[in-house]
Specification:
six-stranded mixed β-sheet; single chain; hydrolase; Rossmann fold; about 230 residues; mitochondrion; His_Pase_superF_clade-1
Length: about 230
């Protein structure tokens, strides 16, 4: 519902001429700016933690977050905001990254929490969540996609640069949806901890993937996927 034509009441007539001023009204509804979306996977965390609060970053995970923060800062971009999952590992990753981006506001959301977005095709033997998870998590993660991944608002005048710190399943699903690929293929991609995925959304709604899971800025001995 962001295509300009869908935002116009075609039955509404111009009072003076009785004719639709469709072209001018379309221009008023068209996006002008490009959105740059940087999707960051959280750093390595303690897999033995039973509850979310116990799944804190490992010492290596904290190093990874520092490296990711340094990389983002080195791009010389003025970031608009950091939106992050409310899970502990994503929150801690955000806190470390944000030290390298002073003044950038942070927003926490439950929508970006990890989960099972959609049953993968082909299925895999090593990961089989309960079927109910796909209904609960899938609806939430789809809501996250619709809420955050879209063309710029028509009122936005300048290009924007936003960081989203979340989880591998969420990022892989979002990439498939954004590129209009079958979302069931999300599990065919692999993302390293602290990796950077860069999506570009043009004013016409066209989406391009600049980088997927980039960790080339990390030394080889710092790279993990767990």
């Amino acid at each position: 519902r962001r295509e300009p034509l869908s935002l116009i009441n075609l039955k509404k007539k111009n009072e003076e001429t009785g004719e639709e001023e469709l072209a001018s009204r379309l221009d008023h509804c068209k996006a002008k700016a490009t959105r740059h979306i940087f999707l960051i996977r959280h750093s390595q965390y303690n897999l033995d933690g039973r509850a979310d609060k116990d799944r804190t970053l490992t010492p290596l995970g904290r190093e990874q977050a520092e490296l990711t923060g340094q990389r983002l800062a080195s791009l010389g971009i003025k970031f608009d905001q950091i939106i992050h999952s409310s899970m502990t590992r994503a929150t801690e990753t955000t806190e470390i990254i944000s030290k390298h981006l002073p003044g950038v506001k942070k927003i926490s959301t439950d929508l970006l929490r990890e989960g099972a977005p959609i049953e993968p095709d082909p299925p895999v033997s090593h990961w089989k969540p309960e079927a109910v998870q796909y209904y609960e998590d899938g609806a939430r993660i789809e809501a996250a996609f619709r809420n955050f991944i879209h063309r710029a608002d028509a009122k936005q005048e300048e290009d924007s640069y936003e960081i989203f710190v979340c989880h591998a399943n969420v990022i892989r699903y979002i990439v498939c949806r954004a590129l209009q690929f079958p979302p069931e293929g999300w599990l065919r991609m692999s993302l390293n901890n602290g990796s950077i995925t860069h999506l570009v959304i043009r004013p016409n709604g066209r989406v391009a993937l600049r980088t997927l899971g980039d960790t080339g800025f990390m030394p080889p001995d710092k790279i993990t996927r767990t």
